C-alpha cells in the first residue's frame, strides 16, 4: 500500500518558489520574546537600586536586539524596517510620558478632595475655600451638546448628499473644496503652535476658480451685483477670508 501527497505538484512548486522569494525570516514569536525580556529587565531594574529611569532605559536598549537579530537572519532591508518600527513605537511611548505624568498628578492630588459636594456645588459667589466644579461640568455639557446638535445633522446630511445624490455636480464639488480647506485649517490648529488660519491667499486664476466653485455651490450670490466675481471683493466663506493677489510667485519663478 502506497500513500501519495494529496497536494498537486504545481502547488508544491509554487510554495517552494514563494519560500525562495521570501528568504529567511524570524519566527513569529521573536518580537514577543524580545519585548517580554526587555519589559522584565525594565521592571526588575526599576525595582532594584538602578531606579525607574535607568531600569526603563536598560530595557529599552535591550529591544534593539530585535533589529540586530533580524540583520543576521533576514538581511539589512528587513532589519531596517524593524529598526524604524522600533523607533516609532519608542517615540510613541516617549510622548505618553507627559500624559501619564498629568494623569498621575490629577489623581494623586484630586482624589483627596473628591466628594459629592465637590461635584454638585458651583463656585458662584464663592470666595476662598469651598465650592465645586458643578458649573464647569454643566458648561461643558451645554457647549458640547449644542455643538453636537448643530454639527452632527449638518455633517451627516451633507455626507449623504455628496455620496448618494451629488454625483459630481457643482454643489458637491464646492462642498468638497470647502471641506478640504476647513480640514487643512483644523490640522494646522491641531498642531497647537498658536496658529489659527483665517485667510486663504490665492493667485488671480485660482481665486476665480474658487469663487466659481462657491457660486456653483450656492455659497455666494450668483446674479447679485455684489457677487465676488463681479466686484472683486474678498468674501468670508466658512470662517475664512479669501484673498486674491498677483504677487504670489508661480512655479519656477523666484
Structure report:
This protein has ten helices and three strands; from the N terminus they run ααααααααβααββ. By secondary structure, the chain is mostly helical. The chain has a three-stranded mixed β-sheet with strand order 1-3-2. The mean pLDDT is 77.
State the secondary-structure class. Answer: mainly alpha
Order of helices and strands: HHHHHHHHEHHEE
User: Average pLDDT value?
Assistant: 77
Beta-strand segment tally: 3
Measured distance between first and last alpha carbons: 84 Å
Low-confidence segments, ≥5 residues, pLDDT <50?
none
Radius of gyration: 30 Å
Give the biggest sheet.
3 strands, mixed
Residue fraction in strands = under 5%
**What's the helix count?**
10
- Molecular shape: flat
Q: Helicity range of the residues?
A: 55-70%
Read across the widest sheet, the strand sequence of neighbours is: 1-3-2
Indicate the multimeric state. single chain
Give the helices and strands, then pairings.
Blueprint: H1 9-22, H2 30-47, H3 51-62, H4 65-73, H5 76-110, H6 116-120, H7 134-166, H8 170-190, E1 199-202, H9 204-216, H10 228-231, E2 236-237, E3 240-244
Parallel strand pairs: 1-3
Antiparallel strand pairs: 2-3
What distinguishing features does this structure have?
three-stranded mixed β-sheet; mainly alpha
Quick description:
This protein has 254 residues and is mostly helical.
Amino acid at each position: 500500500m502506497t500513500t501519495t501527497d494529496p497536494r498537486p505538484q504545481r502547488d508544491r512548486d509554487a510554495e517552494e518558489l514563494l519560500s525562495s522569494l521570501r528568504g529567511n525570516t524570524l519566527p513569529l514569536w521573536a518580537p514577543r520574546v524580545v519585548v517580554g525580556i526587555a519589559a522584565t529587565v525594565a521592571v526588575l531594574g526599576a525595582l532594584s537600586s538602578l531606579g525607574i529611569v535607568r531600569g526603563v532605559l536598560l530595557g529599552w536598549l535591550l529591544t534593539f536586539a530585535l533589529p540586530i537579530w533580524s540583520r543576521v537572519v533576514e538581511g539589512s532591508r528587513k532589519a531596517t524596517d524593524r529598526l524604524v518600527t522600533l523607533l516609532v513605537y519608542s517615540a510613541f511611548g516617549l510622548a505618553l510620558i507627559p500624559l501619564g505624568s498629568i494623569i498621575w498628578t490629577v489623581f494623586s492630588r484630586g482624589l483627596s478632595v473628591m466628594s459629592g459636594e465637590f461635584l454638585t456645588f458651583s463656585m458662584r459667589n464663592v470666595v476662598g475655600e469651598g465650592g465645586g466644579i458643578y458649573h464647569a461640568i454643566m458648561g461643558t455639557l451645554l457647549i458640547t451638546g449644542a455643538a453636537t446638535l448643530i454639527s452632527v445633522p449638518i455633517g451627516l446630511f451633507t455626507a449623504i448628499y455628496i455620496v448618494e445624490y451629488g454625483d459630481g455636480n457643482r454643489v458637491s464639488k464646492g462642498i468638497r473644496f470647502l471641506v478640504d480647506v476647513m480640514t487643512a485649517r483644523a490640522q494646522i490648529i491641531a498642531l497647537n503652535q498658536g496658529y489659527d488660519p483665517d485667510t486663504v491667499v490665492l493667485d488671480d486664476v485660482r481665486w476665480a476658480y474658487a469663487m466659481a466653485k462657491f457660486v456653483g455651490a450656492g455659497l455666494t450670490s450668483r446674479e447679485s451685483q455684489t457677487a465676488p466675481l463681479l466686484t472683486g471683493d474678498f468674501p468670508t466663506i466658512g470662517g475664512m477670508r479669501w484673498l486674491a493677489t498677483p504677487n504670489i510667485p508661480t512655479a519656477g519663478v523666484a
